[in-house]
Write a structure and sequence with these properties.
Length: 373
């Protein structure tokens, strides 16, 4: 590509006579004068129109106010979700009125139909479970139909639990609230397993954050109390000094509600909550970890959302163990623990879906052949 200076493009051509030069200058001058005159005329016209328009009266759009009767009807048929930490409960519908106390995330409140104050667009009169009444800002909370209450509550909770901007103490509060709400007896069936599974997930994320930040309960009384409240759902690893959610929390939930809409999700959380065992070459340890986690999920959920993922992972691990039969750590005399694990896995694999069975069972049969000699 060749670049030519811009100046050369405008300098091409020649002037052949003095008369042509004179004629060109006259034409250019006249055209320039006409353009200048037209430009001034347009400016005058625009300024005149602007002055005329500015003198016209303006119409201000007034925001439509909701009628008090409509506010009462809407609030009385809605449920309120508090999606923030420390929302002020005011004595009156006024920002400057006394703050009775701060509300927790997700704290159950209901519309106070007995409020003596007339309904206001910016405030909702509410009553707490302990009987305390007051007003909260409408713009801060979520008012939803009853059928959307649970999904909205859990959506807001998960948003905050997964946020890096929310501190550890706030995540403890959110987890405690969801567990408390799940224990009220308000939810049953699909909804119950969903909120309990989510509560376990929030507990896992909160404990994971504690482990990552190295927060020790001995130095933090609030954290110590939090762990005590959930001690039946947690495991402690003395080697690493870390806490884990016991996967049996989710498995027991599945046993109680085996065929519900959210069972698959609970099974996924149970599998993901399995702590990574430091097995090294311990064959029994490695087989037990696979059987209690991914193989158990495949067995319980033959059409689950995560079956392809877990089958692929399981086959990869078994393949790495059996690709060289001579390297399988089955040293004579082979312990009964190893034999028991292999037999249990073969029993599980014999009853799973045909596609998964075809991929998994051959590797287990190789293990049996080498270890049962």
């Amino acid at each position: 590509m060749i670049f030519v200076p811009l100046q050369k493009i405008f300098c091409r051509g020649m002037v052949f006579s003095q008369s042509l030069v004179y004629l060109r200058s006259r034409v250019l001058f006249r055209n320039g004068l006409d353009f200048f005159t037209s430009f001034i005329a347009v400016l005058i016209l625009v300024s005149t129109l602007s002055a005329s328009l500015s003198s016209l009266p303006t119409i201000q759009n007034k925001s439509k106010q909701t009628k008090p009767s409509e506010l009462i009807k809407r609030d009385s048929t809605s449920q309120i979700v508090i999606p923030v930490i420390g929302l002020n409960l005011h004595l009156f519908a006024d920002q400057k009125s006394d703050v009775l106390r701060k509300l927790k995330f997700g704290e159950p409140v209901s519309f106070d139909k007995d409020s003596l104050e007339s309904p206001k667009e910016d405030w909702i009169p509410v009553k707490l479970e302990d009987g305390l009444s007051g007003f909260i800002k409408r713009s801060v909370v979520r008012s939803v139909p009853p059928k959307l209450y649970l999904s909205t509550l859990l959506f807001e909770a998960e948003r905050m639990i997964l946020s890096n901007q929310i501190d550890f103490a706030a995540k403890q509060e959110i987890t405690d609230t969801i567990f408390a709400i799940s224990s009220t007896g308000k939810f049953t069936g699909d909804d119950f397993i969903f909120i309990r599974a989510k509560a376990g997930f929030f507990l896992k994320k909160t404990v994971d954050l504690m482990n990552t930040k190295g927060i020790k309960p001995d130095n933090d009384p609030g954290t110590l109390e939090f762990l005590k409240r959930h001690q039946t759902r947690l495991l402690y690893d003395y080697n690493s000094g870390k806490y884990y959610v016991d996967s049996n929390y989710f498995w027991k939930l599945l046993e109680a509600y085996p065929k519900t809409k959210h069972s698959d999700y609970a099974g996924y959380l149970a599998t993901e909550s399995m702590p990574n065992a430091d097995c090294n070459v311990d064959l029994k340890c490695r087989l037990e970890e696979m059987r209690k986690g991914k193989l158990r999920y495949i067995y319980l959920f033959p059409t689950g959302n995560y079956i392809n993922l877990y089958t692929k992972d399981l086959v990869y691990n078994l393949q790495s163990m059996t690709k060289d039969p001579d390297s399988i750590p089955c040293f004579a005399p082979v312990g009964e623990g190893i034999k028991s694990e292999i037999n249990q896995m073969i029993r599980y694999a014999s009853e799973i879906g045909p596609r998964e069975k075809k991929q998994i069972l051959p590797h287990l049969q190789i293990l049996k052949k080498e270890c049962f000699r």
